Amino acid sequence: MWLLHLAAGFFGALLVGGMDLKAQESLLLKSLGLRARPSPKSPAPVPPLLWKMFHRRTLPLAKDQKPKDACWVEEFGVPGNIIRVFPDQGGFIHREEPQSWVCLQKRLYFNFSAVEEAEELTMAQLQVRFGQNSYHASGSGPPFELSLYRASQMALRGMSTHAYSRSLLVEQSFLQLHKSFLFNLTEVAKDWRTAGKNLGLILEIASPRAGELCSGLDSFLDASLLVVSLAPRHCKGGRAKRSSGYVPAGLSNICKPRRLFVSFGDIGWENWIIAPQGYLANYCLGECPFPLTEELNSTNHAILQTMVHSLDPEGTPQPCCVPVRLSPISILYYDNDDNVVLRHYEDMVVDECGCR
Ligand SMILES: *[C@@H]1O[C@H](CO)[C@@H](O)[C@H](O)[C@H]1NC(C)=O
Ligand SMILES: *[C@@H]1O[C@H](CO)[C@@H](O)[C@H](O)[C@H]1NC(C)=O
Ligand SMILES: *[C@@H]1O[C@H](CO)[C@@H](O)[C@H](O)[C@H]1NC(C)=O
Q1: C-beta of residue 325 within 8 angstroms of C-beta of residue 349
Q2: Average pLDDT, whole number, for the chain?
């Protein structure tokens, strides 16, 4: 509710030519869980999976469908309201003495600085993508070995393979490299949040017939880490419900939700919010007169207040028309590190109003 008030205040300030816009904007950003307004430098394309998740969230609910919980990620069955995709920032490792069976060796690094301390990390999944079937099997036996190591220490000198002490996380054999591999890195990523512990991973593709099979090394496309986390400050545990909630027409000045479309372009946020372009936030406006208050989701207190108000209009005001039911929305955006983030926010849309 206060977020919407802030938003309304923000538009108001814009309309009157802006007093202390910066302060208002930073409050609004803070309530969205952001430290500053992101300004993407080299934004990556949005991963198809995030688009899919975003669109699933924005579909209108069928009649018998349970409303979506802003703090549960259905797709993975884990708690969370923030889904980030971190691009890999590691480089290829060029060895001084090439081992003949190693096709490819690469450091994978994901910068976690965007993850706030208060967030609880609930899932991390590494995706490694290769060009389509570039390595082909011929003859018998698994020709490729994919190994994923966790780098745990850096040596003082040099940046060669041996500069990292490493521990094996996964080892898998393949007849051919598929387009994409997924690895569960939840435990490792949790540990990476401790300062100094995130030294990344080392990916190695090896084959006993490397000379014959590894010529198309450009087959490695990219790696990314999908991380789900829960920012508890934005999750009250209350499951939001969605309903149309409009009061029957007739008494037009009675307390009820009114239409308010918030356009992110209007507040200059279109360069970092990918989707939606805006949303129907609504607001509450109207009177709470005696004796109608009972039908307007009032508290006993509000009913008493309207009675007193009808007896003494000067001394006691009417109760206020305020949101009593709100529902969540999802926003897809670039953060300050150019990571693509899908975040679910509770209490963004006014569904019902009441006299309080
Ligand atoms: C991670 O990102 C932050 C913020 O963009 C930056 O200050 C920091 O140097 C980065 N760390 C590494 C190891 O690249
Ligand atoms: C990933 O690993 C974590 C911890 O080891 C486990 O709790 C979780 O169920 C795993 N997730 C999947 C999808 O396998
Ligand atoms: C009051 O609540 C009921 C049920 O929860 C709902 O149907 C109705 O639309 C609400 N009234 C207003 C004014 O939002």
Answers
A1: no
A2: 80
